[in-house]
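User: Show me a protein chain along with its predicted structure.
Assistant: Here is one chain, sequence first, then structure tokens.
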Amino acid sequence: MPSLMDLLGETWPARMAKSAWSAAKLPGDVYAGRTDPLSEEGIGRAADLGGMVMGGTFAGAPAGAMGAGPVASDLWHGISKVKLPRPVSEMSATHVPTAPLNEKIITPEALQGGWLLPAWGDRSATNSLLSMVGDKPLANPVAMQGGHGFMPANVESGAAWASGKPVIGRLAKQARELGASGDPVYFPYTAMGERSIDFSHHVSDALSEMVKGKSIPAKTVSEFNSAMKKADANFPAIEDWPGLRSPKLREWLAESGGDARNKFAKIMDTRGMQAGGMPSVAEARFATTDRRLLDVPTGSAGQSIARLDPEGRVITAPSTPHRTYDTQLGGKYVGGLAEMVPKEVMYPQMLDAYRKMGYDPFRFDYLMQRGVRGAPIAQRADQQWVDSISRYLEQANRQGQ
């Protein structure tokens, strides 16, 4: 007869804890060779990991059961390195649609036989004007251009992606190399970290407007201006910084490059600046982020997928310019998977190569973005990949019901 402890071990809270612990250990177990990421066990644990990070219920937890979500403080989230002013569940933003975003779902079989070249990008929303952050209106709304949504938003323009010229040049070269095989080259959106959005105009535009409508002590303004003009361990000095109260701040940031925008947001999102009365950077990031991507693990992929032109076409005079990025990559949106898929399942060949080369899992995101000599730059969408992605999506769908 089972003991009381045995019976307690089979209750949903115990099963939830076991599932969470198993999911959390997945990257290390894969790295150590204890788990095959494409096995039934690996795919199941990846689905649990996705649910854990996204705030869903774990396997075995009754829907709606009290405490079914992961135990964590509501005042900490990846959108900020400091304590949030309010839980993400209480944050809000108002977007006015500017055009329909005609997205469609495709199956893994639609990609079979092709190459999957990761399209690393921020999590920004697309095809709207951000008009309010929380209950505060922005005098000049922010044009949201994506992000993953750039692909479906530009399906008729012949552009698959926008970035700086060096990045587009590298991606075009990779598209040509992979396309030389005669097989299609697909470009799945792959999520960068929650705060990567600082590099684009979306957050700096929003914060510039939020600054206008907020009373900030002169001492805080002075300290912020000094910090922007000084070099620190993470950023160079911005010698031509116009000042936080400059009437041209928004346009200056838009024209000054990603490093200045990045420093602007990161300095403002420090404990001292937030305590000193600066606008909430966390709420600006929340407002500019596609809600579907708010909680996905970094490296998850598949929300939008384009097929790249095999000749690696570079567009230097785009018909639909992006406010942040001046160069675009030729290709066409084909659809997206039903769920974002963790990198361990989406790109197993790339990660397996890194493991064999002795790299630790915490470096995988960096290596996937920068490349490493001797490792593949893309995943082959072969039958094994199709089968594993299909199993993952099926399991994720069951857990979401």
